[in-house]
Design brief:
The structure is a homodimer of 114-residue chains. Chain A contains six helices and three strands; from the N terminus they run ααβααββαα. Chain A has helices at residues 3-11, 14-23, 30-34, 41-53, 73-83, 86-113, and strands at 28-29, 57-62, 65-70. In chain A, α1 (3-11) packs antiparallel against α4 and α1 crosses α5. The model of chain A has no long low-confidence stretch (mean pLDDT 87).
């Protein structure tokens, strides 16, 4: 898979997104990451491997422990890809805004004519 | 799967992203979407089903044809999720900027001392 596909795939699971949210607050060991989830160690390890392969996290040895650290680069890449489409929802808002303004304008002119 | 997981999963394939890019330029029939890809009709249909399930596209009947239309809502949802992390790369840029400014400042003061 290409990088962007790896990133989007890694983000397509609520446990992996919860792990990233936890890591956005600071580094954590594998044990600390596993704690809030009712999940077996191999299941958590599998999620961490997918996150690591996509480059969303990296592991660092700290004595006997392995700390996981969030990496922002793939998140930025995914965000930039989505940014290309942002004019779609911005245009929708602008259209809604225009419609509302037109409705308010119409109401005012109707009131004026009364 | 939840909506966000569906969206990120749908985006985790380059063919599906290429289909969305094509649809961002306007509606297209299934045949028109299949044309640029050396792929069987069932393979394209499978990709379209994943995109439809995630809400990224919707199909509309046009006589004998079925037109595909891009839907911005899931893209907006994914973009907003990623937005929460944007301070990470913005902070990194700010830090790099500070480092560069400090380096330039140091060079200038060293030059001044010569």
């Amino acid at each position: 898979m290409d990088n962007l596909s790896d990133t989007f795939f890694a983000l397509s699971d609520p446990t992996r997104r919860a792990i990233l949210l936890r890591l956005s607050k600071g580094e954590a060991t594998v044990g600390e990451l596993a704690m809030p989830f009712e999940m077996s160690a191999p299941a958590i390890t599998k999620h961490l491997k997918i996150l690591e392969r996509s480059g969303l996290i990296r592991k660092e040895k700290d004595g006997q422990l392995r700390r996981c650290i969030l990496q922002e680069k793939p998140l930025k890449g995914a965000s930039e890809w989505l940014e290309h489409y942002s004019h779609f929802w911005e245009d929708s808002f602008a259209q809604l805004d225009d419609t509302l303004k037109a409705m308010v304008g119409k109401d005012h002119s109707e009131e004026g004519a009364k």
